[in-house]
Automatic annotation (TrEMBL):
Pfam families cross-referenced by the UniProt entry: LRR_1, LRR_8, Pkinase
The protein's name in its UniProt record: Leucine-rich repeat-containing protein kinase family protein
Alphabetic keyword roster: ATP-binding, Kinase, Leucine-rich repeat, Nucleotide-binding, Repeat, Transferase
Protein kinase domain ranges (all copies): 203-425
SUPFAM superfamilies: L domain-like, Protein kinase-like (PK-like)
Residues annotated as binding ATP: 233
Length: 425
């Protein structure tokens, strides 16, 4: 985090990224002294409600974050910033998004947790758009023109007022990660009679195990007749970038037990805080990869020296295909099938977790399974680019990857078939 005095002293000359969060109510003029170099401007966590008309003077600006401010509209000046490809205005009070506010090169738009009830048809002209985050708004419909955004790979439309799942989603050739729970058209989650009641006072919370955008995960001891070491996910707020914690918990609990899922024990009621999710403790595992970067946008980041034997790639891929098949059998779309949501053990034991983007769907919406198969294709592609082994088997895996990512989504194999193919290799 930078300070205003550092900015004013001229010490920041030449920097590419500026992070300022210090109660700003107006845009500091001094930011223009960085016009030659500034590519990423993060003004999240201030009290701004407007941006200056001459913002395009920041001619190298590619990324702007203004989350947790007081904007009631998406500033139109953004549309005149010609290199801007990522716009993040989460948790404002935005009601109005006009066509003029949309930069043509847009790849990643974050408008999560606002009050938007209408999006302009011109959003469909942002052909580079890959990631569209709209959870927690008041949208009753989406512009049909979005069908033209053929590069869209990740969409979050959970916790809105949508009356139906738009048909055009199924014509997006690259869509892989979709979250839509918490809309009026969504089926009710099934009751989970086996989930035990867990009382906050029975938990001894210990060290932090991990943290994501939506929650912090702690190790805990669950005091019962036979005390048990567990993992506790405490949500950071009432809405995450993927949707509602209640939907995440409902899906995670409804998914039930499976050898390749992290799984859930149940929901913890806290007298005065957000509910939390209790899970089995997965000890001694680590994340298969890190989440996407600003640059990679939709693709996970692996350690540079991370390689897999063919045997391990097959083991990971087969486990994930089996976990996804299990979820689809229960009509649950994971929505975030990514390496960064996979925990991996010392023997490459595999556990899929993070149901933050999960949605229940009806049998009539079965084609959603084929969308998730593309997420698997991305994972397989990443694993294959780091795998050494027999060329013949690698070729077969590459063919499976290609067919799982094919443009005609109905022609993609389902997870039951993928599992069969993998077990035959
Ligand atoms: N049951 C568990 N046992 C051990 N570690 C866990 C468990 N569940 C989660 N973790 C750790 O905590 C991290 C964050 O968990 P999770 O992905 O559920 O959080 P999140 O806030 O939803 O993340 P995201 O930013 O992807 O939304 C995981 O990547 C993992 O390292």
């Amino acid at each position: 985090m930078h300070t205003l005095s550092q900015l004013r002293s001229g010490k920041l000359k030449g920097i590419k990224r500026l992070d300022l969060s210090c109660g700003l109510t107006t845009f500091p003029e001094d930011i223009f002294s960085l016009a030659d170099s500034l590519e990423i401007l993060n003004l999240s966590g201030n009290a701004l409600s407007s941006l200056p008309d001459d913002l395009p003077r920041l001619k190298s600006l590619k990324v702007i974050f203004c989350s947790d401010n007081q904007f009631d509209h998406l500033p139109e000046v953004l549309g005149r910033c010609s290199n801007l490809c990522m716009v993040g205005f989460k948790a404002n009070q935005i009601q109005t998004v006009s066509a003029a506010a949309l930069p043509l090169e847009l790849r990643w738009l974050i408008l999560t947790d606002n009050q938007i009830s209408h999006l302009p048809a011109e959003l469909g002209q942002c052909h580079a758009l890959q990631k569209l985050m709209l959870a927690g708004n008041q949208l009753q419909s989406l512009p049909e023109t979005l069908a033209a955004c053929q590069n869209l790979e990740l969409i979050r439309i959970s916790a809105n007022q949508l009356q139906a799942l738009p048909d055009w989603l199924f014509s997006l050739p690259k869509l892989a990660w979709l979250a839509f729970a918490g809309n009026p058209f969504c089926p009710m989650p099934p009751a989970s009679p086996h989930a035990p009641a867990i009382h906050w006072q029975d938990l001894e919370v210990a060290e932090q195990l991990g943290e994501g955008a939506s929650g912090v995960i702690y190790k805990a001891l669950w005091q019962q007749e036979n005390p048990r070491a567990v993992a506790l996910k405490r949500f950071k707020g009432a809405l995450t970038s993927d949707g509602l914690p209640q939907c995440e918990m409902a899906a995670c609990i409804a998914a039930g037990e499976h050898p390749y899922l992290i799984g859930a024990i149940g929901q913890v009621e806290h007298p005065d805080q957000h509910p939390a999710l209790l899970m089995p403790l997965i000890d001694g595992f680590s994340n298969l990869a890190g989440p996407p970067s600003l640059e990679s946008c939709t693709r996970d980041i692996y350690a540079q020296d991370q390689y897999f034997s063919l045997e391990n790639t097959l083991k990971i891929a087969s486990s994930i295909a089996a976990a996804a098949e299990h979820l689809h059998a229960a009509h649950i779309l994971h929505g975030d099938l990514y390496a960064h949501n996979i925990l991996i053990g010392p023997e490459n034991e595999t556990r899929l977790g993070d149901f933050g983007a999960a949605s229940f769907y009806t049998p009539e919406q079965n084609l959603l399974q084929n969308i998730e198969v593309r997420a698997f294709a991305c994972l397989l592609e990443e694993l294959l680019s780091r795998t050494q082994g027999s060329a013949a088997t690698l070729d077969k895996l590459a063919n499976l990857q290609i067919s799982s990512a094919q443009v005609t989504i109905s022609a993609r194999p389902l997870f039951s078939e993928i599992k069969k193919i993998l077990s035959s290799l």
